[in-house]
Amino acid sequence: MVDPAGDKLGTIDAIYLDxxxxxxxxxxxxxxxxxxKAAFVPLAQAQDLGDSVQVxxxxxxxxxxxxxxxxxSLSQDEEAELYRxxxxxxxxxxxxxxxxxxxDDAVGRDVSGPTTDQAMTRSEEExxxxxxxxxxxxxxxRKYVTTExxxxxxxxxxxxxxxxxxxxxxxxxxAATSGPAISEEEHEVTLREEEVMVEKRAVPKERxxxxxxxxxxxxxxxxxVRKEQIQVDGDQDQLPRQDQR
Length: 245
Prior knowledge:
two-stranded antiparallel ribbon, about 240 residues
């Protein structure tokens, strides 16, 4: 038999069954090879761990327990004294389980939590997955000036001198002989041409702004979860009135 921490309380010598129901009610435990004193420990909240039985009592409480004569039976007075020592309610009226009324023989002690009722609760972890918004970065618009060379073909006009000669005819005779017969003369013609004039002006081309789009994608989340499993060990109903361990 072991205490809640798993430390050994002693060796179980015998199991005392209820006279009416035949259910295990008490165990006698010896604490050493040379110890003649057997301690009575209630089995109402005991757990069968396979190679040991665990009870919710420490070594000092078992050691200080009343020690009736382990002669195979307990009187009501002896049993009442033991129940008071272990903090259990005692009544001479018996329940269907054979234990005193008000005592639940099916109460189990869960080492991971408080004492349970007649049923053992099996729990498991479930993933609770959600999302939260966080800042992933920033984008900004920045305008800067670059320079490039553009070539444009522009048609330009210019005047050139062309010499025209015409013979003297009756039509132009008067104009041809209006001046001196022999003289020196100069005639000047002004030549004109077009030249390319370049001007630059800023012309709006487009409007640019930043906006956001929401994109949905699926991501796999993996996390370990724990779950409790329940198994049944042994058959307490088949124990004899006194079982040596």
